[in-house]
């Protein structure tokens, strides 16, 4: 199963490289707005953060706006997907090869999230986005508090430190159901990384296991979504290429950092990421819906 998954990642990397590369060659004399060094730096920073589990889309959007790299705001969605597709696939490939995790557990959770995102695009998008964001934010903060208390030894009922690399029986069923739901919620803007980290931890798995699960869950979605953006030219070509190159470097460096961390330190980093994401969701839920022209 792991070999099959790695083969799929390689195929997706090659597919995305071909689709994006063909478009860049066709427009080599007009790659558009942006600065190579600035955009490359943005890719390095944001995909480094993505490898830590913080996510890349929000920081990239903020930095692109701050540095005025995009000529038109309408290019932002396509740029985010096209630029970060290969770095996320590299993340998934690295963590799948270096982190010990049951192939059945990994494959089951990734398939669940993928199916969830497909179904979510048809049904979950009808849910009230603001309410979902608010309650997801609250749930993440509560979970982070429980994780912190457990780390401090104040919740013996939750057991000792996490070392498991596989889910079996009812825990596997719970993991599949939750990751299916998280995949579905991605379609209304609820990121999968932090909730997936929380789920993996609370089910007793090693904190490192979250990385191949959450990155594999997202890696298959972005290259496919990017095809239409590239086909329609709805992305910033120069910016996307620079972010991709900088992002790959950021991923490789960050992956060595993460996999070399003591698990206690890594758990506290994960707790901080979950708290940050929780408050981000609550803040989003409080903002008025932008008027659509």
TrEMBL record:
What are the alphabetically sorted keywords of the record?
Membrane, Transmembrane, Transmembrane helix
* Organism (species): Enterococcus viikkiensis
- This protein's superkingdom? Bacteria
Protein name, entry field: TSUP family transporter
- Annotated membrane-spanning segments are 37-63, 101-120, 132-152, 172-193, 200-227, 239-258, 265-283
């Amino acid at each position: 199963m792991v070999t099959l998954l790695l083969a799929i990642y390689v195929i997706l990397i090659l597919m995305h490289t071909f689709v994006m590369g063909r478009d860049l060659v066709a427009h080599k004399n007009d790659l558009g707005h942006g600065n190579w060094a600035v955009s490359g730096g943005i890719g390095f920073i944001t995909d480094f953060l993505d490898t830590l589990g913080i996510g890349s889309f929000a920081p990239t959007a903020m930095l692109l706006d701050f540095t005025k790299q995009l000529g038109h705001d309408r290019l932002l969605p396509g740029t985010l997907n096209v630029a970060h597709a290969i770095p996320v696939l590299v993340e998934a490939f690295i963590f799948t090869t270096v982190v010990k995790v049951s192939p059945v557990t990994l494959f089951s959770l990734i398939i669940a999230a993928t199916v969830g995102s497909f179904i979510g695009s048809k049904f979950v998008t009808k849910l009230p986005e603001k309410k979902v964001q608010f309650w997801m934010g609250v749930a993440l903060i509560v979970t982070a508090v429980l994780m912190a208390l457990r780390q401090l030894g104040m919740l013996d009922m939750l057991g000792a430190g996490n070392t498991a690399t596989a889910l079996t029986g009812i825990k596997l069923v719970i993991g599949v159901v939750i990751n299916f739901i998280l995949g579905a919620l991605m379609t209304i803007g609820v990121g999968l990384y932090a909730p997936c980290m929380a789920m993996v931890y609370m089910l007793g798995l090693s904190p490192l296991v979250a990385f191949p699960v959450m990155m594999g869950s997202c890696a298959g979605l972005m290259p496919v979504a990017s095809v239409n953006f590239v086909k329609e030219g709805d992305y910033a070509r120069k910016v996307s290429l620079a972010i991709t190159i900088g992002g790959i470097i950021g991923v490789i460096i960050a992956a060595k950092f993460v996999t070399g961390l003591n698990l206690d330190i890594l758990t506290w980093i994960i707790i901080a990421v979950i708290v940050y994401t929780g408050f981000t969701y609550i803040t989003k839920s409080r903002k008025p819906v932008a008027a659509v022209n």
